[in-house]
Amino acid sequence: MTSADVYDVRDPERPGRLLAVERDTLVPLLRARPDEDFARQTAACPGWSVRDVLAHCSAALTRVVDDRLEEGVFSPASNDRDIAERSEWSNARILDELERAMTEAGPVIAKAGGALEGVGLGEWVHAGDVREALGEPGAYAGAGLPDALALLAWLTRERRHAPLHADLDDVDEPLRLGDPAAPRPPARYIGQATTLVRLYAGRPTTGTSYELAGAEPAELNIFA
């Protein structure tokens, strides 16, 4: 598949593949962690612990599975309520819900015609948030990265974000993101794929090295 194909074509199975990757890698890792690790704070989500992030993820995907997507869902207030509803749950129960939802949400997202693609990408990004908080390698990387990049390109095109041409140090072909018909020349990014994910997800880039010309980092954030 060429970079143009990745940019233009929606693969309805892609979000489900991302969720399956994390179900099969992150969830077993978390089940082996002691309870105190779930209290660690996350740099990516100020004020949220690892447990809070996981509770949010399991709640969000369960809402998708159960078709409970009322007005205001996924707002800060809604997210806080979902986390509070799980405050008395054990860590194991949260992981049980998360594992089930990661299995069942993919087909629902696939049938939604593109409306829920951002949920799939967001949950994959949150898995990176958790890895980083736990000191695990491969935050915003791993087996799901190619699908995450392709989904990011598709989402930024559909949402008419500023155009950007990314030359990735660790990917053979350049990646085009954003609206190709925008009345401005594409911005240019040079650096690691994981740092590009951090920029588009609004995550800290401390300790990374990259070049960005023609756009400000804040313009790229798809979750702002």
Detailed description of the structure:
- The protein has helices spanning 3-8, 14-31, 50-66, 76-85, 91-111, 117-134, 145-158, 193-201, 217-220, and strands at 164-168, 175-177, 187-191, 210-213.
- Strand 1 (164-168) and strand 2 form a beta hairpin.
- 39% of the residues are buried.
- The longest helix has 21 residues, at 91-111.
- It contains nine helices and four strands; from the N terminus they run H-H-H-H-H-H-H-E-E-E-H-E-H.
- A four-stranded mixed β-sheet has the order 2-1-3-4.
- The protein is of the alpha+beta class and 224 residues long.
Comma- or semicolon-separated keywords:
224 residues; alpha+beta; four-stranded mixed beta sheet; 52% helix
Strand content: 5-15%
Report helical residue fraction: 40-55%
Could you report the average pLDDT, rounded to the nearest whole number?
A: 94
The computed structural class is: alpha+beta
Q: What letter string, H or E per element, gives the SSE order?
A: HHHHHHHEEEHEH
What overall form do the CA principal axes indicate? globular
Count of beta strands: 4
